[in-house]
Amino acid sequence: MTSISQARAMGIWQAIAAGLLLLLQLLIASASPDLQNPDLEIPPTNSTYPFPALDSTIKYLPQWFSQGDVSYVFTSSHGNYRYLGKNGKITQEFKANVESSHYLLTFSLQPARTNCDNTTSVTISVPVRSVVVSFSNKFAGGNQSSHWQTHGVYLGIHGNGELVTLSLECSNTTTAFTDCGVRLEDSFILKNIPNPINSSVRYGGLVNNLQNNMLPNGGFEYGPAFPNNSVGGVLIDAESDATQSPLNQWEILGTVKYITTNHNYTAPEGKASIELIAGKSSGIQTSVKLKKGSEYALSVFIGEHNDACVGDFQVGVQAGSSVQNFTIQIKGAGTGLDSGWKIKSDSNRVTRISILSLATTKSKDGVLCGPVIDKVVLLASYGLKLQISILFVGIGFLATLVQITG
């Protein structure tokens, strides 16, 4: 067999292996474990009151264990929810999949009363991680405390069928009102994603035609689950460790909003995008190792969410020492543009790639909003890709030579 035929055969096997890996990851994603009674449709036993306290007589909400000041609230129009007062805590144990996976939780919270906007916080804990999530009226609108805010939280890596204890506890700050509790909406969504992810695919979708993207999760398809009514998006708070970020492989600077296609917005690629909503402090950042002296092509989509922002978006993109600034005129039509340029690595060290909002923009209602980011792609130059291809062919030739001579 000639070296060319050998290279072709090796290429076929690589394609088959990539296809099998994609199939495996999609199977893992579709096998996400579920929390029991996540929508609170199963009420507490021996309870007939509109606001039953889960006290010593009613301590058990099916599949959830309650401690402290916890009430179950029946509503006819907005679904059921839990009220957590001072030291109120709910806990449930779930079983992780056999495969090692990243686990994420999506949930919604709301202040118990209008005077408690900036004191409403919940601590989400699992054995390996604890995160405090707070309601912020900066991202609400109108009658601020009447709005639910949806958040995405990273719960760590779990596998081998281990039992994981998840708890949510009221952790409100000191306030003049003793009954400043927190409401937790009747929707808890647990999601797991493969570990490690396959950066050349759209999560849950088709193979990306830019399979050589050097940036893992450049299309932001690996992130928190979206609730059924995902118009408002999912808030992701600041996280300086990309390995523990709800947006896999990306550091979060400030607060960003994870958004998906809905009647107000269509993602330019795949199902998810990122909106930079916290003004100048808002952004995302990742790292990649480059080769000194080599050229690369970097491209990014910058657009709008069609949410009536006022003003112009200003976005800065930095890759190592290369900086590009963009000004996007807001048209209110959910439009955007793809921008690309060449960069040259000046070292063999890890290079940071950051995308930052350089301005603060709000809607007519005074709600923070910002530019939408998607399709962040870094491609090696033709020369570097040719070197890599020759390397793989060389490895295949050596392997064949060893088989023949051995």
From TrEMBL:
GO terms for cellular component: extracellular region. Residues 35-172, 214-377 form the DUF642 domain. The keyword Signal applies. It holds the Pfam family DUF642. Keywords: Glycoprotein, Secreted, Signal. InterPro entries: DGR2-like_dom (IPR006946), Pectin_Meth_Modulator (IPR052437). Residues 1-31 form the signal peptide. It is found in: Cell envelope; Secreted. This is DUF642 domain-containing protein. It comes from Papaver somniferum (Opium poppy).
